[in-house]
Design brief:
Bound molecules: NADP nicotinamide-adenine-dinucleotide phosphate
Helix content: 40-55%
Largest sheet: 7 strands, parallel
Order of helices and strands: HEHEHEHEHEHEHHHE
Distance between the termini: 41 Å
CATH superfamily: NAD(P)-binding Rossmann-like Domain
Shape: globular
Radius of gyration: 17 Å
CATH topology: Rossmann fold
Structural class: alpha/beta
Oligomer: single chain
Number of helices: 9
CATH architecture: 3-Layer(aba) Sandwich
Amino acid sequence: MTSKDYLSTLFALDGRVAVVTGGSSGIGRAVAGALARAGARVVIVARDEARLAGTVEELRAEGCRADWVSADLTDREGVRAAAEEAAGVFGEPDILVNCAGVNLRPPMNELDTEVWDTTLAVNLEAPFLLGQRFGPGMAERGFGRIIHVTSQQAHRAFVHSGAYGVSKGALESLARSQAEAWSPHGVTCNTLVPGFVMTPLNARLSSDPDKVAELAARTMTGRNGLAEDFAGAAVFLAGPASAYVTGQSLFVDGGFSVH
Ligand SMILES: NC(=O)c1ccc[n+]([C@@H]2O[C@H](COP(=O)([O-])OP(=O)(O)OC[C@H]3O[C@@H](n4cnc5c(N)ncnc54)[C@H](OP(=O)(O)O)[C@@H]3O)[C@@H](O)[C@H]2O)c1
C-alpha cells in the first residue's frame, strides 16, 4: 500500500456529504474547504448570499463539489427549511458541522432577553434541531459524524461571556448526549474548542494590537488561532480515523486552555 493510499483509509471523505453551517466565513469557511478538499461534497449554510456564493465559487474553482443554502438559523422554521434544502442538494448528510455562531457580548447587567434568545437560538438550538433532523438517519445508515464548534468560554468566563458561554457550555453537553444516543450506530459526536481566533466574529478585539499580543501570550504557541488551524482537526473528526473518538471536546487553541 502506498503512503497516499494508507492516508486515504484514515482521512479520505470521498463519497461523503457534509453540511457546514457558518461555512461562509472564518472557522466554518476553513472547515468547509478542508472537508471538500478531502473529498466530501459540501453544502454551506449561512445568511449572506454573496459570501456564500463567493466561498462556493472558490471551492469549485479548485475542483471541489460544493453548494450553498441561505438561511437564518435564529428561528425554528428557518432551521427546518435550511435542513430540507441542504439535504436536497447532494442527499442526506453523513457529516454535520455546526459552526454558525454569534457572540454579542453585552456586559452582564445589560444582557437582555433579546440577546439571550438570539444567542441560544443560533448557537445551541439550531445545532440541536439539525442533530434531531440528521442524527437518526445517520444512525440508521450506520455512519455519521457530528461536529460542533464551541469555545473556551464553555469552560471559563471571558470578556462578557454572558449568554455566549452558556450556549457553548450547553452545546458540549449536547454533544455528549448525542454521542450517547448515536455512537452505538456509528455516529460520533464531538466538539472543536477554539481559543482566540482572528476572524470577523471578534473584529473589535482583533483590531486592538495590545489585546491581540496579550491574548497570544496566554497561549503556549505564542500566537492566536487562524481559521486554517481547524482544517486538520475537522478532517480527522469527520473521517474514518476518528471512529473511536466520541463525546469529546478537542481544544484547538495553541495551549490557551492549559496555560
Ligand atoms: N473567532 C473566535 O475567536 C472563536 C472563538 C471561540 C469559538 N468560536 C466559534 O467558532 C464559530 C465560527 O466563528 P468565526 O469566528 O469563524 O465567526 P465568523 O467569521 O463571524 O462566522 C460566523 C458564521 O456564522 C454565520 N451565521 C451567524 N449568524 C447566523 C444566523 N443567524 N443564521 C445563519 N448563519 C449565521 C455567518 O454567516 P452570516 O452572517 O452570513 O449568516 C458566518 O458564516 C462560532 O460558533 C464561534 O462561536 C470562534
